[in-house]
Amino acid sequence: MLVAELIAPREFHLTEQAIADPGPGEVQVRIGAVGICGSDLHSYSEGAIGDSPCVYPMVLGHEPAGTVVKAGAGVTGWSGGMRAALEPALYCYHCEFCRSGRHNICANIRFLSNPSIPGFFREFVNLPEANLLPIPDRVPLDAATMIEPLAVAMHSMKFAAVEIGERVAVWGAGPIGLLTIACLKVAGAGRIWVVEPLAHRREMARAMGADAAIDPGAVDAARTIYQEAGNRGVDCAIDCAAKEHTTNEAIRAVSNGGRVVITGIHSACFVPFEVSPMRRKEIAIFNVRRSNDEPERARDLLVERLAWFAPMVTHHRPLTEIAGAFVDAEHYADGAVKTILLP
Fold it and tell me: What is the DSSP string of 173-187?
């Protein structure tokens, strides 16, 4: 099978590798589409995700969908030709966190696309059958790749805890930010602001349901939102961009007793927070670690409102053009929002 390995920052190598038959309890899937995620871009351009360095060669990609080729011994319910979204995390199911239902912070988690655990930028994969989520035939595989990031956005709603009519600001209108806006609309949020420097992404954010889209290069975003929200700030601010200044802008824009949710991944290991407004306003700050039990609900929402989400997929490239795809995604070339690789 064809495999795309990251062998150095901004350098991919295509190689041919064998794949074994699926073992007991496993299903072999031909990968049909994989989305490029912001964390893939961190690995590609920075050589690390936060304090976790890349170890080369490694195979990225964790937003996959594909078609079943064959099933291993003991597998029931899956056969050749069936289509699925694929869960990239392998949980131990016996640590204290798994036993308490918080699988996303499993003490022994193995995540496909981390060093030594190949991700999905390849043609085939063997996975436990529990890691396959069936998708209807009418959902294209490229759209199904959004189930994984949509589940992350849904998980962030647990911490945002938005009540009907509450005002919310979102920093960043990349894929996670756009999916967060969608989740906020479903949750019944009132006015939604988005802060995004790129014009085409501000336009997409409005299409997803944002009421106001702010160019941070033109105005002081935090001050503008604070004033427009009745000079008391928003009830919740969600940072999907995860830059030092975006987190602090979220802190400044939120109201007394408000919530700040950090969904994005900071590049730096240490980020200074503006602690005085945090303290004065008694802000609650939450971090998001992927998703937990949300993938099925994410699939159902995607199926129900496919026409709403489909325009986010703007670019497609074959796996053989992975280098160019990452350049486009990194530089938002040609209005890129979500770039899909097609193994």
Answer: -SHHHHHHHHHHHHH
| Distance in angstroms (rounded) separating the CA atoms of residues 52 and 111 | 13
Q: Are 122 and 296 in contact (CB under 8 A)?
A: no
Task: Report the b/e string of 64-96 with b at 16+ CB within 10 A.
Answer: bbbebbebbeebeebeeebbbbbbbbbbeeebe
Q: CB within 8 A of 321, min separation 6: which ones? A: none
Question: Among 267, 271, 230, which Cα is nearest to 251's?
Answer: 271
Distance CA 101, CA 123 (A): 32
Joined tokens for residue 261: 């949710």
> How many percent of the chain have pLDDT more than 70?
100
Say whether pTM exceeds 0.90. yes
155-190: pLDDT as tens digits: 999 999 999 999 999 999 999 999 999 999 999 999
pLDDT for 192 beyond 90 = yes
3-state secondary structure of 203: helix
Query: Tens of pLDDT along 243-278?
Result: 989 999 999 999 999 999 999 999 988 999 999 999
**Structural domains of the chain in order of their starting residue, each with its CATH number:** 2-145+305-342 (3.90.180.10), 152-287 (3.40.50.720)
Q: Which residue has the tokens 């392998």?
A: 90
What tokens does 222 get? 């935090």
How far is the C-alpha of 33 from the C-alpha of 153, rounded, in Å? 20
Residue 134: partners with Cβ closer than 8 Å, 6 or more residues away: 82, 83, 84
**Identity of the residue numbered 19:** I
In this structure, are residues 27 and 72 in contact, taking their beta carbons and an 8 Å threshold?
yes
d(CA 330, CA 324): 10
Residue 281 is given by DSSP the state H
